[in-house]
Amino acid sequence: MQKKTWCLALVIGVMAAVSLLSAVFAATPVPAEPPYTGVIRNLTNHDISFYSENSQGTVVVPAKNWREYVVWHENFDLIGYVKGDPYYCKKVQVQPGQYSFNCKSYDFLTIIGEEVPTAVEGLG
Asked: Is there a contact between 47 and 61 (Cβ–Cβ < 8 Å)?
């Protein structure tokens, strides 16, 4: 009789532990999973090429334009090339959903070059 009591107590204890752990893991926020999508804005006068992580191809960001860029790692080196030579390098850290661009939410935003304010006639 005592063995049955111990077995029953053990089974109930294991069930309680599993229930408690599943509740703890359910309350823990789950980080976003790859792939991560971001934006590369090119404000320079050069077309800049980047190696694509997901297709082994090349993504070209035209001068004065932008492109969506997909990565699979939370931290990565973004290296841009102009005519085959390294032109731009930046360490990027993904922050899921933290960047807004063109009414969409992105995981990272990289701006290459400086945004020059346009002159307004009649002022100054």
From this structure: yes
Where b means 16+ CB within 10 Å and e means fewer, 79-105 reads: ebbeeeeeebeeebebeeeebeeeeee
- What residue type is assigned to position 123 of the chain? L
The per-residue pLDDT for range 45-64, each reduced to its tens digit, is: 999 999 987 778 999 999 99
Q: Does domain 36-112 have CATH number 2.60.40?
A: yes
- Reference 79, options 92, 64, 66; nearest CA is 92
∠ CA 22-28-33, nearest 5°, is 110
Angle at the Cα of 16 (from 12 to 18), degrees rounded to 5?
115
DSSP code, position 48: E
Q: Is the per-residue pLDDT at 124 higher than 80?
A: no
Cα separation, 66 vs 111, whole angstroms: 9
